[in-house]
Amino acid sequence: MSLLEVTSLDAGYGDFQALFDIHLTVETGELLALVGANGAGKSTLLRTIAGAIAPMSGHVRYAGADITGQPDFMRARTGIVLVPEGRRLFPTLTVEENLLVGGSTRRDGPWNLSAVFDLLPIVADLRNRACSHLSGGEQQAVAIGRALMSNPDLLLLDEVSLGLAPIIVGQLYAVLPNIRERGMTVILVEQDLSRTLAVADRVACMLEGRLVLAGRPAELTREQVTDAYFGHGYGYLDTDSGAAR
Amino acid sequence: MSWLNAVVQGVLLGGFFAISALGLSIVFGVMRIVNLAHGALMILAAYGSVLLIERTGLGTWSSLLVVVPVMAALGYLLQRLVLQRAVSISELAPLMVTFGISIMIPNALVELFTSDVQALPTGNLATRSVSAGGIAVGLLPLLTFGIAVVLIAGLQLFLARARSGRLMRAAADDSQALRLMGVDNRVVYAQATAIAFATLALAGVLFGVRQGGVAPFDGQVTVLLAFETVIIGGLGSLWGTLVGGIVLGVTQTLGGEFSPEVPLLVGNLMFLAVLAFRPNGILGRETRA
């Protein structure tokens, strides 16, 4: 059984529709990478799965149950946890307090303060610091640790590498196998194609709010992915809209 | 000696101002809601004591055992059922709702109790004093100051160490992110409001005891003094309410040395001076981005 099943999903902000007829399934233990250009709808899709945005139509099923109408905090309690874009740490709380708040769901599992400190030693060193004084990479490490504290079954990682130095991004990606070895399912949003193709079991490419290409990295050519990324041959950018209709 | 006496009395008066400002500070600090009904709710709590004393034979102090939890429950429900909805409408809506409540409460009290002052007896506590170094200090103001220090220290400890206190600080930082951690921010808000209402209930009864009784429209002055205390001390700082209360209290009693008519006026002038020269308050943090 698929852990997550998204069907015919339309979503957006107010009158602005950002997602069109998304169909997506994710298997337990899988790492799915969502790729696409800025504004393709990757973050919106993650936020809709996390429940932070209510869809306009369509359904989200998780572990066999329809959770379309469930609010975000209920979804976190059933194991869907989002590391949001921009990290969104609590700036006046210390690193350790941020982690403790992350553990608010009190779900059982391998992750607790000491497990997170073992995985991310940099977080352990910072435990008593206020989060407003951390570098971007430090913040991202804390944000990932905070999400793990909840012992999620489905971890949603939004733009982990945004604004970070490549060496920091490398360090953060190096912990992914440790996270996944305990059976966690991961959906990763990323703009860096080569890094994504190296770690993902499956890649889904988004273009202007639609899923246009999906498959295993080994089965896709780099040209296919870059074409989907930039929209060549998909009737969006290199064809005028009248012809596409 | 009369100057020193005025300062001592002012400091103790500041303890009362601090207690009456705590609830306002918490509601604004956690929810960013300006509770214009704060003063009227204080007076409502004092009338709760009046009613209990009349009907049940409880004393003023023992009536707190009922009034404080009842007001806390009222705060929880008001936040959950009314203010939370108002917040979702617009930023201005909660202001209008609390303004409306501040009008409704005193007028309802006039209907139920007339506009006469209702007594809150405490035996001879209000008139007893202790002397030290030639200065006579009222027992009640001394007691009030002690309650203020213990209350602020306790609340500070709660916010710093307790799990639900930590969630309140997190909710003040970023309620949307908190929801993503599986916490319903509306419940956290309601808990914070319950605590705020518990402190304002205590403040209202203390106010009535100090004055010897309460009248329906007393909230109009108490809410102003509570606001001035919070602003002078600095928004978002609980110890700031004590500092703000002491500054306001000392300013008032020193003003009273010149003329019995000026304390409120010089208190307001001090408030304006702080706004002009130190808008973040004495202990206030720099404005957050």
Overview of this structure, please?
- The complex is a heterodimer of chains A (245) and B (289).
- With 245 residues, chain A is of the alpha/beta class.
- Chain A has a single domain (2-244), classed as P-loop containing nucleotide triphosphate hydrolases (Rossmann fold), CATH 3.40.50.300.
- Chain A has helices at residues 42-50, 72-77, 95-102, 113-119, 121-125, 136-148, 166-174, 176-180, 193-199, 222-230, 241-244; strands spanning 2-13, 16-27, 31-36, 57-62, 65-66, 80-83, 154-158, 185-189, 202-207, 210-215.
- In chain A, a hairpin with a 2-residue loop joins strand 1 and strand 2 (16-27).
- In chain A, helix 3 (95-102) runs parallel beside helix 6 (136-148).
- The radius of gyration of chain A is 18 Å and the shape is globular.
- The N and C termini of chain A lie far apart (37 Å).
- By secondary structure, chain B is mainly α.
- Chain B has one domain: Orthogonal Bundle (ABC transporter involved in vitamin B12 uptake, BtuC).
- Chain B has helices spanning 2-31, 38-56, 60-89, 93-113, 139-161, 163-173, 175-180, 185-211, 219-233, 238-258, 263-277; strands at residues 118-119, 129-132, 135-138, 213-214.
- In chain B, strands 1-4 form a two-stranded antiparallel sheet. Chain B has a two-stranded antiparallel sheet with strand order 2-3.
- In chain B, strand 2 (129-132) and strand 3 form a beta hairpin.
- The longest helix of chain B is centred in the N-terminal third of the chain and has 30 residues, at 2-31.
- Classes of the chains: A alpha/beta (245), B mainly alpha (289).
- Chains A and B meet through helix 2 and helix 3 of A and helix 6 and helix 7 of B.
